[in-house]
Amino acid sequence: MSLTTYDPAHDVILTGYRPTGKMHLGHWFGNLQNMLALQHRYPETYFFVADWHALTSDWADPSRLAGYTEDMVLDWCAAGMDPERSIIYRQSDIPATAELNTYFALVTPMSWLERVPTYKEQRENIKDKDLGNVGFFQYPMLQAADIAIMRATKVPVGEDQLPHLEISREIVRRFNYTYGEVEKNGKGEGEDLVRGPLVEPQALIAEAGARVPGLDGRKMSKSYGNAVFISDDEEALRKKAAACITDPARKLKTDPGDPDICPLHQIHRLIGEAGVLAEFDACCRNASCGCVAHKKRFADDLVAYLQPFREKREALAAVPGFAKEVLQAGAQRALPKAAQTIALCRDAMGISL
Fold first, then answer.
1. Using 50, 70 and 90 to split pLDDT, how confident is the model at 173?
2. How many domains does the chain have?
3. Would you say residue 190 has pLDDT above 70?
4. N or C terminus of the chain with fewer C-beta within 10 Å?
């Protein structure tokens, strides 16, 4: 059990996103819609652009980071994120996060970081980047600092991300145990009653977003070159719709198809009207229509679906300094809490003057 000096009257939600490129339909249906729902469900929500995290893997070429950061803010706000309701900020605008990360480095065993599932996986699979730097190695520790500095009580994660949150909980727990007030009960760390400066976050299991296949049938990813970016203009959307693969077993128009394994059908189901989808589903199965006709209708529906978003994004992009102002305003709202948290940590560690 962990008792802290901070007793929130309500839940505090926090999540971040790395600005490493344009957002695509996989992001739109996977996490962004969940973020938009959270801002209306909880009274205190923090959404941060994780530029330091982006630098841990893209440290050799940060030239596009500022542009990607601006793009992300425009995408979020055009999609419906309200900077008046939620606190939107840039990770690097909160220096106390880096200070807390330094304190976490004192109590975090290297073995904890080495066991994070994605560390070895990414070191083995990503060959075009040098990931041998300390920053990438300590990524989970910086993530824990992001969460703890805002005293988030809940962090939205998918089932596959639970190990990442668990190490954040362990780091916070050890920090509180080391520097807080401990009431021993003879059972050791993890069983004693602890009053520490930090909040141990809980997992908020996010509703599973729709799996969005890419234009080639693999998972949609900018690195695969198969993504439909939500900021694509009409011409690009139509070209990508025309290039989308269909049921690979359907060689001729007279061959019956299977919509359940067709990437075109899978993406169209996310954005199209039920009646239209049912019509193409049926005619595909009985071979009464061809894939070209379906691609044309898919293109029309894709353009129409993203049109409100694109118009809003264009309007926001036309406002000089919009993204910068959103991030600055968010930082001003986030900094007081970060300062309070780091002051509590300094007091607990006995290093305050």
1. very high
2. 2
3. no
4. C
